[in-house]
Amino acid sequence: MSIPGVSEMTSPGTPLAPGHAPDRSGDPVLEIRGLCVDYGFGDDAVHAVADCDLTLGRGRVLGLAGESGSGKSTLAMAAIRLLRSPGVITGGEVLFHPRPASDGEPATTMDLLAAGEEQLRAVRWSEIAIVLQSALNALNPVSTIGAQFDELLATHRPGLGRASRRDRAGDLLELVGMTPERLRSYPHEMSGGMRQRAMIAMALALDPQVMILDEPTTALDVVTQREILEELMGLRDRLGFAALFITHDLSLLVEFADDIAVMYAGRLMERAPAASLFRAPRLPYTYGLLHCFPPMHGERYRMEGIPGSPPDLRDLPPGCAFHPRCQWAMPQCRQDVPKLEPLAGSPREVACWLHRGKATAPPELKLPDPAVTRPRTAPVIDTSAERAV
Amino acid sequence: MRALLRRLGVYLLAAWVAVTVSFLLPRVVPGNPVAGAIARAQSSGICNAYCVKAIEEQLGFNVHTSLWLQYVQYLGNLVHGNLGFSWSENAPVTSLIASYLPWTLGLLGVATILSFIGGTVIGVIMAWRRGSFLDWLLPAATFFQAIPYFFLALVLVLIFGETGSMLKWFPSLYGYDIYGVDPGMNLPYIASIIGHAVLPALTVILASMGGFILSMRNQMITTMDEDFVLVARAKGLHTGKVVWYAARNALLPCVSNFSVAISLVVAGQILVEIVFNYPGIGYHLYGALGALDYTLVQGIFVVITLVVLAANLLADTVYVLIDPRARLEA
Question: Buried b vs exposed e over A312-339: b needs ≥16 C-beta within 10 Å?
Fold first, then answer.
């Protein structure tokens, strides 16, 4: 497979100028189908992820939101076969569609869950890169940033010489707003924001098609968080990678994601274009999450929050896992598990009995879809106010 | 560099304390060495005032000068490498120790290095292959870690030693064949040394390796759950590289544990030398204690302390070299 983008990189002035137009077709690049993950074996097993379907479109940003322990990270890590023990994948498939070759020949799809270790190794980082929450823990503490770049490039691009590997690493650092001198630094010598930038630069090193961003900014302060997110999204627009953005901060996703999926107790409960989900949620849980954030402007009103606490995965309630906390719960919710199904007449999916059959959804969950879906460009957010703080 | 210099300062302080304690100890315990030496002299004849003075001079114990002056004199002697005169061996302590030390250092050095390297490698493999058949090593390592050195030595002598009653594979007395070979740079002598070192070294290795295995394995298991190891896998690095990522980081606490372990190994080796009549420092310390040869005991104490401190300093230096974070601490 050719490496468009990175290979053309020559000077800092034209960093990562893609040799191809970023593909935003939205064709699936990563398809998760019926993924089930357990922690532990046998009767004691905890079903951390149950029967999840998720499709990441080429060049799109898919947000995955949910409370701690809802299974977001487990879902993502299982999909790329990086699950930590004692996690076990018990079912499903994860299809990765490589970029079509330059001659237009479609590349063969690969099931990551069925792939062998060597096949996986070839896809890892060169096609699917990850950025984790804490870059201090994600960077090897005993070697310099430069050495870590070097190792990566030497493994995946054996044709490159030592000098060109160093040049490329320097260019990548400049791409995320760092000086190439930083290659000589150890992770502990840099600030949290810089480490995360270095990590992002490293993730971009092989021009991957998919980035798994697992709470990439949660450990940073809000100003740095904003800077890094904008950096990331700007890079996404230039390079055209698709991103699976995992966070518990729904308000963050609304600004940066194209689509948002909401997870609860190991199941995907609602999936919709970001603006639709934000302005007109269909799921009581999403509604509750959105009403946890006070608006900056407008009338004062009493915050509701979601009553109760997240369920114990070892002892899930029967039916819909959210029903004990749901103000609109019906008898059916206590018996049957709702499936994630498309909602008639809209590009969204929801797993809720309120929107099925003869049930009538409360007016809060029937707000009209916002007329125009926001155009997918780099978010234009004025950060000058925040920077001045 | 600053971190190392600071460490060096700490070690100098520790060395001074050790030297001072080994000066004070024979002077505060009941039964002073001079009285003992006079009693011995009198048992073989008359010891008059000149004889007493001669003994005091020889032992460096002048009861008529103040403790402080004795201390200053002792330190002065020490700086010049003069540790006094051993009456039981009838030779200067310094030259005696110089002849014992190579045996001890050779055995200790080879055994500890083999044990540390072997234990670390086994620990890494055990952690990486957790849940495989290698897990039976775990109770074995715990067992060998708990077993006292001298007991293990006796068991090995019994099973493998020539003086034992079973296999008689290896010699189990002295540092070389004192009846059969000529000391010097000749092959039979060197071969004899190696043959005689097998069982004592095996004892030290077996008894100390368990601790190294367990600490490396446990560190490794913790480290393998770290994010950077996950990222190493996500980067598609070869498995060997991923293991190295984890092992390289798990090694750091093990190297600092080594400083603690080395003093236990030295203490254990003293007993091992006694069991095998191995002509090192430990064996002669035992002899000197039996003969109430205080000067020799004192000298050996000082040297053992310095050896342990030197090993600690070495471990610290290695630590600073392999952990970039330690270089900044100041």
Answer: ebeebeebbbbbebbebbeebbeeeebe
Taking an 8 Å cut-off on Cβ atoms, the answer to whether A141 and B324 are in contact is: yes
pLDDT 10s digits, A261-283: 999 999 999 999 998 888 888 99
The mean per-residue pLDDT over the stretch A358-367 comes to: 84
- Tens-place pLDDT, residues A331-353: 999 999 999 988 877 788 999 99
pLDDT in tens, B59-82: 666 666 778 888 888 888 888 888
Q: Which residues of chain B have pLDDT under 50?
A: 330
Q: Which residues of A touch B232 (CB under 8 A)?
A: 140
- Interface subset of A 204-243, CB within 8 angstroms of B: none
Question: Which of A27 and A90 is assigned the larger pLDDT?
Answer: A90
The shortest C-alpha distance from A155 to chain B (Å) reads 7
Residues B3, B330: contact at Cβ < 8 Å?
A: yes
Residue B65 near residue B27 (C-beta atoms within 8 A) = no
Helices (H), chain B: 2-28, 33-43, 49-59, 67-79, 93-128, 137-146, 149-160, 187-224, 227-234, 239-276, 281-290, 294-322, 324-328
Contact B4, B320 (CB under 8 A): yes
Q: Parallel, antiparallel, or unpaired: how do β-strands A46-57 and A28-39 relate?
A: antiparallel
Q: State yes or no: pLDDT of A132 exceeds 50.
A: yes
In this prediction, residue A36 carries a pLDDT of: 94
Side by side, the strands of the sheet bearing A259-264 are A128-131, A210-214, A242-247, A61-65, A259-264, A267-273, A349-350, A341-342
pLDDT for residue A76 is more than 90: yes
Q: Which residues of B touch A132 (CB under 8 A)?
A: 227, 230-231
Residue that the structure tokens 């100390």 belong to = B208
Q: Listing from the earlier edge strand, what are the strands of the sheet with A46-57?
A: A46-57, A28-39, A87-96, A110-111
Question: How far apart, in whole angstroms, are the C-alpha atoms of residue A361 and residue A356?
Answer: 9
Evaluated on CA atoms B47, B53, B56, B57, the torsion sign reads negative
CA distance B241 to chain A (A): 9
pLDDT of residue A139: 92
Q: A122 vs chain B: nearest CA distance in angstroms?
A: 7
Q: Are B284 and B161 in contact, with CB atoms under 8 Å apart?
A: no
Where residue A339 falls (left for φ over 0; alpha for ψ -120 to 50; beta otherwise) is beta
d(CA A231, CA A190): 18
Query: Kind and range of the H or E element at A231?
Result: helix A222-239
The Cα–Cα gap between A121 and B38 comes to 80
Mutation target to probe the A interface, by most A beta carbons within 10 A, among B224, B231, B239, B329 is B231
pLDDT, tens only, A292-307: 767 677 777 777 778 8
Q: What is the rounded distance in angstroms from the CA atom of residue A156 to the CA atom of residue A217?
A: 27
CA separation for the pair A374, B100 (Å, rounded): 84
- Angle among Cα B152, B204, B254 to the nearest 5 degrees reads 125
Residues above pLDDT 70, as percent of chain A: 86
**DSSP letter string over B244-312?**
HHHHHHHHHHHHHHHHHHHHHHHHHHHHHHHHHT-SSHHHHHHHHHHTT-HHHHHHHHHHHHHHHHHHH
How distant is the alpha carbon of residue B158 from its chain centre?
24
Task: Kindly state the DSSP code that residue A270 receives in the 8-state scheme.
Answer: E
Residue carrying the six token digits 């274009």: A273
**Spatial contact of A299 and A319, defined as CB atoms under 8 Å apart:** no
Residue A206: both structure tokens together: 């092989």
Chain B hits for A189, Cβ within 8 Å? 328
Whether the CB-CB separation of A227 and A215 falls below 8 Å is answered with: no
A74 is written with which tokens?
């487990």
